[in-house]
Structure prediction request, 599 residues.
Amino acid sequence: MNISTLLDMAAEAFGERTAVVCGDVRLDYATLRQRAWALAAHVRASGAQALSLLDVSSPAFPVAVFAAAYAGVPFVPLNYRLTKAELDTLLARVTPAVLVVGPPYEALAAGHAGLQVLPRAAALALPAPGAGPEVVEDPRAVAVQLFTSGTTGRPKAAILRHENLVSYILGTVEFASAEEDDAILVAVPPYHIAGISAVLSSTYACRRMVQLENFDAAAWLAAVRREHVSNAFLVPTMLARIVDAQGDAPADVPTLKAIAYGGGKMPLPTIRKAMALFPDVGFTNAYGLTETSSTVAVLGPDDHRAALASADPAVRRRLGSVGKAAAVELQIRDDIGRVLGPEQAGFIFVRGPQVAGEYKEKGSQLDAEGWFPTKDRGFLDSEGYLFLDGRADDVIVRGGENISPGEIEDVLRSHAAVADAACVALADEQWGEAVAAFVVLKPGAVARVEELQAHVKGRLRSSRVPQRIEFRDTLPYNELGKLLRRVLRQELSTAG
Amino acid sequence: MARTALKAGGRFKSATSEAQVMVIKAPAGEFDLSCGGAPMVAMSATETAAPDAADTGEALIGKRYVNADESLELLCTKGGRGTLKVNCAALAIKQAKQLPSSD
Prediction:
């Protein structure tokens, strides 16, 4: 099993179909394979042990994903938003490597021994060999190495082997299932697992990929119309911006059939409004992690519509769930490893061939039976729909009681004056930990600390009432909309 | 090639046509894997065989092929003439289960 087989099949069966569109550049599947062969030959001749990429989405991204596979080295995309110092640390962990670099980032890549820098244009213009390199068949070889976002410290190098990624694709996508006119708009960057899985899924489905270098709502809507896009993947923050930009008028996007979203918590008002503005689009919530080769649970279009239309509260609340387990097994366990039943919140474990659960330095995190601890908390309903309840690391333990920050944040956000809210643990002599809240007020709105505390007290148990509330102009999010609780905790500890 | 062990990820090609397969899953033990009436061979092999003229079947790219109890599953990675068989029994196309597109 090697992910290059996915491209081989697409190029053999639909070589003349467009694979990737970026601005004015178009490559068909046969050409994509030619370019990947050429870059693979370059990597092999260089003696590099990895093929790295420091760039926004461009045709060089799918070319490099498959070139690494043909060459038999890991593909290691890097976050181009990092500082030079942060990047230097990561690059030192990747060498000896060939680094494909986009024009704005060439200066960032300078000055590393063991790094052969290849500008994007040169990587796409290498002389094409007549035939592909002989691929070494090793299902255990590493296909992709992704540095986790490091929201809790030094970035970890998550490892995805060929057998994990091929299993994921074969378990979730039918070969050549895309219609000839279908196109997917990919707005997530190459260093995100959803970017990688979009390349692999689209290739195996023989679907055209339309790339957006940098996301903004207007450019996204324009690309959907210009390229007659049928499918799209977004993180919740992106969908929220599109919904805001759209106002109250239904979106005029007749070709768009499906929007999948994931990578963070979707606020209920946003998905409700999106479904109203895009009445003909089927929405899918995809829950997954880097370590699980992307999606492990999906809430499909029919689930969304049923939840919105139902009078049954148990069905209605599924709009806030991430759906049912896809091509994996899923369990909820308590603190000492006992498997829990429906409606009981605990730690989420997953098992299956797509689950890598492995870091380069720390090794495999799977238990003896092959289960991976996601470190996400959640519970299942009686029909197997999964509801997330935050990260295990974010739980506030007050006097032995586990408190999920998410439920307090939801209540704070329901206050008329509150635009956004985040809760973290505050060190407390009496309780061990207490709840601290950071609140962003809506423009022009006013609310006193006591008023917000009373608002929470009226809706949740008294242990949930924030002991301390601080007002901020903004909360710290990373570029993909993930809240950086670590930053807030640090602010509290330095403030004393 | 006579009976051979099949393990996940293993790849074979037809000696009678362009067809190629990859093993998705297989039970332990050895099997006779054939296409077009002749044993399938390793990807690096150069031997060819004359196709069985009576075999009008075809292996279709992207289709999954299973035995009767679905304990053995192959993915056709390149299409070609010839019926895929294991231990002389023709394999059937497995029905696709389509998940909503999530990426």
